[in-house]
């Protein structure tokens, strides 16, 4: 597929190199850039898979002082929500109070969060050529996500990915996902031009609802360009390939995901700390653990862990998307140069607002709301 060129700017924002080098404890060779529009210039080369590109959001005309973008490569689902009093037992049928369909998926959630926090955000993912794909596209576009790399799979036999979210009365949820276009039709190997948006990112977010082979290629491309990668461990319940772990900078699991990854108990903070040590031995220098009601903690190899308590929510309506909100908000704070402590607190505030609204993408807070909460928390 013929691409459209992307021109790097001569206005190099060296401050982001210094910030990222300090936080990652290694030199960064990425040259930050800004986008310019001349006769409708857009980033180059869309990932190909018998798909058509959706050029929804033009690049800003005056981004000289804009930080490099957050690029999310991942899944997009339509979520079927059913509200129930409790989960059914084996062989039992329970009645749902209500049902509705909303846009979601870990990748789409994180992209929506980044955009709603007023950070330039690109989403690289796939939907089907169906009504549910349009639902997701419209939702992301409405949040301000740049969809230049959003692909619509034309193979009618592969539908948009979807999920069934069973929401209980206490706000907790159980989720079943069907991969659809998230797990099918990706190219076996990307060319350099296909990954241009990744190489020009300020930070890249990955998750486990797309094939490992895609994540590995993206992570390698980011590392080659000096772009930090945060890998959300949520999604596929299978061991993470060592090849992928070798190319990520921050691993972000929750307690249960950390336990499955390491094969170790994670019931207490001491056990979590021991499991994190195993992650360090697997090659991951930084581990950002989401602890639910107990907050979060960032473990950097050789340093004292940084703990962050939750910022209490006025009421918990739905926890769906809270982890995605936390991870994406941390990424936004990171690329904008906040300290690690500030990133954790910023993410905690965003997650607190998220759980007070039903749905995933609809619950992502805007920057003003997060900053207002931080003033009084």
TrEMBL record:
Where does this protein hold ATP?
254, 290-295, 323-324
Documented activity regulation: Activated by a monovalent cation that binds near, but not in, the active site. The most likely occupant of the site in vivo is potassium. Ion binding induces a conformational change that may alter substrate affinity.
Cellular component per GO, a single term: cytosol
Active site per database record: 324 (proton acceptor)
Q: What residues bind substrate, as annotated?
A: 77-79, 105-109, 209, 324
Q: What pathway annotation does it carry?
A: Carbohydrate metabolism; D-ribose degradation; D-ribose 5-phosphate from beta-D-ribopyranose: step 2/2
- Gene3D superfamilies cross-referenced by the UniProt entry: 3.40.1190.20
* Name of the molecule in the record: Ribokinase
